[in-house]
Design brief:
Elements: E1 5-10, H1 13-23, E2 26-31, E3 35-39, E4 46-51, E5 62-66, H2 70-79, E6 86-90, E7 96-101, E8 107-112
Parallel strand pairs: 1-4, 5-8
Antiparallel strand pairs: 2-3, 3-4, 6-7, 7-8
Length: 124
């Protein structure tokens, strides 16, 4: 199996489309007001949004997007007005991460892990 697509909930798909286009995703399906699908900027994965009446409670959804040039990517997005909850920093699990939320509170983590992405020192 190979992961193809992640779908996150949204209260306003049209507003969410603009947000994700700002992040660099390319819109490939627009089925308003219920659904939108994007190609990720790199690789073969897709990402989509679907309309919900109520968002999940608690911490909600976490989605990780890998960026080889994390610091430059974050700086470019900040120049476009995107606000981050956490600037890029090295984490104890050997990933460098920056964090932000989309308009619906879904947690988005931009990260770079290099070899540690699949092969951390503690891998079984």
């Amino acid at each position: 199996m190979n992961l193809n697509q992640i779908t996150v909930p949204s209260l306003d798909v049209e507003k969410a489309i603009a947000f994700y286009e700002t992040l660099g995703f390319r819109l490939i399906v627009r089925s308003l007001p219920y659904y939108a699908r994007f190609e990720c900027p790199n690789g073969m994965s897709t990402f989509s949004i679907h309309l919900v009446e109520k968002l999940p409670e608690g911490d909600g959804i976490y989605v990780y997007f890998e960026c080889e040039d994390l610091d430059a990517q974050v700086a470019a997005l900040q120049n476009k007005g995107v606000q981050f909850d956490q600037e890029p920093r090295d984490e104890r699990w050997l990933w460098r991460e920056a964090r932000l939320k989309d308009l619906d509170g879904n947690q988005l983590i931009l990260y770079y892990a290099g070899e540690n992405r699949l092969n951390p020192p503690w891998r079984i």
